[in-house]
Amino acid sequence: MSESAARRLSRMFQLISFAIDAKQDHLSHLDGAIGDADHGITMSLGFTAVNSELAKLDLGRTLPSDVFSAAATAFLNAVGASTGPLYATAFRRAAQALKPLESLSPADQAIIIEAMAAGIKDRGKGQRGDKTMLDAWIPAAEAAAEAVSRGATAAEMWNSILAAAEDGANATRSMVAARGRAARLGERSLGHMDPGSASAVIILSAMREAFTEGCS
After folding, report:
1. What is the rounded distance in angstroms from the CA atom of residue 202 to the CA atom of residue 104?
2. Which Gene3D superfamilies match (predicted)?
3. Judging by beta carbons within 10 Å of its beta carbon (0-12, 13-18, 19+), is residue 208 exposed, middle or buried?
4. Which pLDDT score, from 0 to 100, does residue 215 have?
5. Residue 47 — φ and ψ, nearest 5°?
6. Rounded to a whole number, what is the largest CA-CA distance in the chain?
7. CA-wise closest residue to 179 among 116, 133, 122, 114
8. Which domains does the chain have, with CATH numbers?
9. Which one of 2, 48, 60, 141 is least enclosed by Cβ atoms within 10 Å?
10. pLDDT in tens, 56-100
11. Digit-coded pLDDT (tens) for 45-54
12. C-beta of residue 71 within 8 angstroms of C-beta of residue 54
């Protein structure tokens, strides 16, 4: 990358925030079918707070791990609902996995996805098939690891990550929710996409844009 890894990550969080804001009403609409209809608002607040906090950093002197640590604290402070601790844990795991790296190769980018997925899974005590954001994050992490193992380019890796996440999110329509507020609906949750998996796809799409900008 021609710019510092910290600046690239800051750009990544900006793109995530822009993308979430653009889809805020859609996410809340999805949540309205099986939850409290506030997922879009919650995610927007969280990433707005992240970007406000990152704006205070001297990115020329900041390690990638420090960017994720700051993001974790900001997101958790802004979002008190269950999504807050989940993404805060995801960002903290990414921070731990990146220490003490100063650059971000495609393999390091894959590590971010794997660490975030593991953090969400451990914090939420969930698994694939529960009709949650993990139905997008787990396939994304698996796709990232597989892409690295076959020596894929960054663009190829991110295309695989996003395709796996999209397939996982779409699959939640045929699932009965086993966790979260949607679990109270039982069979009535069938036919609806999980909003958390939908926002995960938006996040991963923005991450792809950030990490492949300028790539041939």
Report:
1. 21
2. 1.25.40.340
3. buried
4. 64
5. -80, -25
6. 52
7. 133
8. 5-212 (1.25.40.340)
9. 2
10. 999 999 999 999 999 999 999 999 878 999 999 999 999 999 998
11. 999 999 999 9
12. yes
